[in-house]
Amino acid sequence: MYINKEFVVNQCKEKTNEHLEYCQLFNEFQNGCKTEQKIGIEYERIPVEKKSKLQVPYEGEFGICELLKNFAKSDNWDYLLDNDNIIGLKKLHDTITLEPGAQFELSLEPQKLIKDLQSKIELIDNKLKPLLEEFEIQLLNVGVSPVSTYKNIKLIPKPRYHIMANYMWGILSDVMMRETAGIQVGIDYSSEEDSMKKFRIVNLMMPFTTAMYANSRIRGGVDTGYKSFRALAWLNTDNERCGFATKFNRDMTFADYINILLETPMIFINRANRTVNINGRINFKQFMKDGFEGFTATIEDWKLHSNLYFPEVRLRNFIEIRNHDCVGNGLEYSIPALYKGLLYSKDALEELDIMLSKFTINEIKEARYNVARSAIHTKIKKHSILSICKEFAEMAYYSLKNNCEDEEIYLIPLIEMLKKGKCPADF
Length: 427
Fold this sequence. Notes:
The chain is an alpha+beta fold and about 425 residues long.
């Protein structure tokens, strides 16, 4: 059975247990509609030993766990625990969490102004700096670990990651989990129509933004021949839950996205402090209908299942854009600036829609594969990816300039880099 919006509305009126579940699924996205449009960032970096550039392990006297303990004590952060293991820190609405290979992720409360995100990142980095020096650790702004490979990077002691590592297929899934780091941006939407329009357009942008921020050429101490080895890793990881989460149709609704998730195989659920491994034996629609080993579906199961789905762009109670390699030297702030300039301006969004409509969906999908190797030096149709990236950056620049908040300055490093015909991997 295909779930559509009319079905959800009608079943919500009937108020039966099963139908109420479908209503709840829809409400998870509907409740994301906001009057004030903010922007969020998740900033992953790879911790390496300063001298050897080997990735720093979780355990050990100078490991990431000890670093977190010391930082929590020095700056009054609370522990985030999993089975009594420290897997991150929390302070008010900000968190520092660890990815599977102990990559360091900073997630900040969304802000209206990019300068407020920048101030928070710089404040936390400055407070971390003495401890990083003491531990002789450097947080790298690159998309893939430059020396260590997954074979010598242990997973942190978080059961979820071990289950995912055993389940997720694809020849580079271990690389994706243990070696890579990216920057993710959260964009707000005001309505279902606004959400779906932004969602479609941002998905069309993916090959271009992957290209302009490509920054993972060196892996295992050698030049891989790919400008974004991180992008290559995602292309070769579990394509049932990675890639594009849209058919690019202009009439897409929340219900269409819900149906994609309903058809996606489940990995696990949590019950009473234990993990129940499903291992892809059923999808979420089957779970709602028949249960699994005596367990019935809950809204918490749906939230977990949604978070175990990893497309280039993910719909939550905001739009999560996930495809950028980690970058530094000021470029990190150009990423939220780019999207803010393009997506929060009605005129810029319309212009962007027209610009991207010249490409077929197959051309976009083909470009997504090609930019992993050659980034901005890729061709799409007869067009240069570089020239289109320049147009994106300039459109965003003038859109932000019209806002009179001085945020166009965050795009200057990106514009200057593109003028030189380069992406970060070219330096």
